[in-house]
DNA sequence: GATGAATGAGCTTTCATTCAT
DNA sequence: CATGAATGAAAGCTCATTCAT
């Protein structure tokens, strides 16, 4: 068996299993036996389980960042120094996200990885992503800034993360939600359907009116009546 | 040591550790040694690790569902059979969510737990929550339906989950995001600030225009140009 | 709940479970939960699991030894100093064995317990039985000795145990064997049937000719041809 | 350390310990520490404790069935279609049983396993033996049938099991009985001695006169006087 | 007299990793 | 280059027993 074969099969199998069960719940034994490679092959080729996780991630993020940079280059060239409209930015990102995954399930893997990267407080994954792939996000954020000049910086930061949450949560939990939706509405949803549904929502969210200034807490009593300071 | 003491200490410790690391990554040994109780105490009081996880959820969800039912009762009484506006529904929910956690950090813990419950595809947790706590969500969803009569049912379902993703992602990753925001915008964000920011976004998202009908995939080529069927 | 009630229920439950699964495979938890008594009740009433096991035995062996002594008294009185024939001794024993158990199945339970007591080599049970109930067996053995004067002592010892094996094995595995017999021969067997079948076999076995003296191993080659020294 | 070494040492050690204490009373920790192999080695090589037990068994039964088939082949060839006398069948079986074990104690293991296989009502072991090794016993039983044409089928079935009980009980409890015999009769008994003693007993038992027909229960009152219906 | 709570020891099994070949 | 064997650590869980009330 050629090396590339072994490595690829490990990655393919790991990707699917990670998406199905999570990282801790997926053992190397399960991966290697399903991939029909030797148990020691993961450690041999990747060094450790953690490195395998990052390799699974890299196989996604490397082409993504490359394509995304290229797509943003084209977009900037096309608009020739003028501001790029928000919806075009979002559509470009969506198109790139959808363009990358070659196999079934892997978009979900990607989203789940992103979700974990954010939610795990200790976060070796977050640092790893920030370090290796932070540039393209910074570039994208800057373009969004130019497209929404009226938004205060902090507000934009939060709204981008609100939307990141929407997308990651929806796509990483896709399987579960799809089950429920199918059961309740007899509707077969594809990722494309979801992205179509997401577009107007994300645009509307980004363009929502600014919140009231919080001049005095007392004025918002019905909303925050029982909340404690956290 | 009184029973309630041991049980409470296990729950308190487990809650924090689960939220920090996830369920699989948190061993009973870690929980019990940190809680300074005997290792066998978890199995004695809860029966299994799985049952402990559900007990951690129950401690949040039981008072939540109770309060939420009460709050919805009051809201319905106040509106006397007429349709309750969407923003009042959302504010009621937000107020209830904020009212439940009694200790510091626990809103974040709760949200992180909810996020985990959704993202674990095999989902004994999801089934458990659906079974034991589904009623109040069904009731809430029905009220939202009356408040948004123009939305198709499926669309409403997805938008509610989009917003659920926004809220869960933001609040569960609060610590990490707070760090970044503070670093970049020198802004101290509280949960209240976030909720204030969330309100117009959520309302706008729910009221966003309907997506274009997907009559023909070819028509949306700039959006889906490179995507494969998933 | 009266004490006797608790004690009796523990004994009743333990007896059945021990017979079904063996001693080590039956936990106090299983016993107490099935008997619907407190987990600590066994230790409270009996002191330890080992003591419970012995109590289960005592409940059978105490009345057995008492009745057996009485029956042997009567037999000796009836024969007035003369030798008691072997078949009368055996029938007396059989009758006593059958007379003891009061409930359904409990003869089988008793036999299974006896079998366990013998087969467990470390044998605190064997010592316990020997110590507390050895007398009546010694008395019986002596009477058998008088009834079979031609048998060397060692030979008699072994043949008695051979027959003990026959009886214990057959009666303790009664359920399984009954299934097979019923399936193959469409025959409903009762304990009485078995005892009827056992009688001529046991008598013939006890009266079998003495084995050849083992003067030289080479003379018995067809029998021991391939055996090693053990 | 070569694989065969580790596997063999585990089997050798397990065999002895199982025979000494039983299965449930023998922990993998005890086995592996005594065999001086890693605790995980049992699960690595055998998969589970249950599989180890069956492997211990198989190491005995595989050569036994093979040899026994061969020996019966030879016996049939020698008698050229004519009926094989009972004592030759029994001696052939005894010789095969004794020929197999390579190490000390393993005959006892074998017998104890057989005893357990029969006495455990739920019986995963009995099913396993029946499935994998039933053929040779069926063949043997048929030859015994031809050798004892005068015996009713049911009677033969029961007598074979009576004798099976004798053999299993005696040999599986050998250690205990040996202790007693040594103490009482100052006699060193070997397995060979026992087999020599067993031969005439078994033959006599198989050839014992048929029991009285049970025409009327009342006629056997002295035998069953005190017995209840079971 | 009886029990719910608690405990320390030990169980089988699985883990990621390493090693010798 | 690759792998079967092996390993130390740790996992979840069950055990008989004890203790405070």
TrEMBL record, chains A, B, C, D:
<dbReference type="GO" id="GO:0000976">
    <property type="term" value="F:transcription cis-regulatory region binding"/>
</dbReference>
<dbReference type="InterPro" id="IPR023772">
    <property type="entry name" value="DNA-bd_HTH_TetR-type_CS"/>
</dbReference>
<dbReference type="InterPro" id="IPR041586">
    <property type="entry name" value="PsrA_TetR_C"/>
</dbReference>
<feature type="domain" description="HTH tetR-type">
    <location>
        <begin position="4"/>
        <end position="64"/>
    </location>
</feature>
<protein>
    <submittedName>
        <fullName>TetR/AcrR family transcriptional regulator</fullName>
    </submittedName>
</protein>
<dbReference type="InterPro" id="IPR036271">
    <property type="entry name" value="Tet_transcr_reg_TetR-rel_C_sf"/>
</dbReference>
<dbReference type="InterPro" id="IPR050109">
    <property type="entry name" value="HTH-type_TetR-like_transc_reg"/>
</dbReference>
<feature type="DNA-binding region" description="H-T-H motif">
    <location>
        <begin position="27"/>
        <end position="46"/>
    </location>
</feature>
<dbReference type="InterPro" id="IPR009057">
    <property type="entry name" value="Homeodomain-like_sf"/>
</dbReference>
<dbReference type="Pfam" id="PF17939">
    <property type="entry name" value="TetR_C_30"/>
</dbReference>
<dbReference type="InterPro" id="IPR001647">
    <property type="entry name" value="HTH_TetR"/>
</dbReference>
<keyword id="KW-0238">DNA-binding</keyword>
<dbReference type="Pfam" id="PF00440">
    <property type="entry name" value="TetR_N"/>
</dbReference>
<dbReference type="GO" id="GO:0003700">
    <property type="term" value="F:DNA-binding transcription factor activity"/>
</dbReference>
């Amino acid at each position: 068996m050629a090396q590339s074969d072994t490595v690829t099969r490990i990655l393919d199998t790991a990707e699917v299993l990670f998406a199905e069960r999570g990282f801790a719940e997926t053992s190397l034994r399960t991966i290697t036996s399903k991939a029909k490679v030797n148990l020691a092959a993961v450690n041999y080729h990747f060094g450790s389980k953690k490195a395998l996780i990052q390799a699974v991630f890299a196989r996604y993020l490397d082409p993504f960042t490359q394509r995304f940079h290229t797509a943003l280059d084209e977009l900037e060239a096309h608009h020739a120094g003028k501001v790029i409209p928000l919806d075009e930015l979002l559509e470009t990102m969506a198109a790139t996200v959808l363009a990358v995954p070659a196999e079934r399930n892997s978009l979900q893997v990607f989203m789940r990885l992103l979700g974990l990267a954010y939610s795990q407080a200790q976060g070796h994954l977050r640092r790893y992503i920030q370090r290796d792939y932070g540039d393209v996000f910074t570039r994208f954020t800057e373009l969004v800034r130019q497209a929404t000049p009226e938004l205060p910086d902090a507000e934009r930061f939060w709204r981008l993360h609100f939307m990141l949450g929407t997308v990651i949560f929806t796509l990483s939990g896709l399987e579960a939600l799809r089950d429920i939706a199918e059961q309740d509405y007899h509707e077969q949803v594809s990722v494309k359907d979801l992205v179509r549904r997401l577009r107007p929502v994300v645009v509307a969210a980004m363009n929502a009116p600014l919140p009231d200034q919080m001049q005095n807490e007392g004025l918002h009593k019905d909303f925050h009546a029982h909340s404690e300071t956290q």
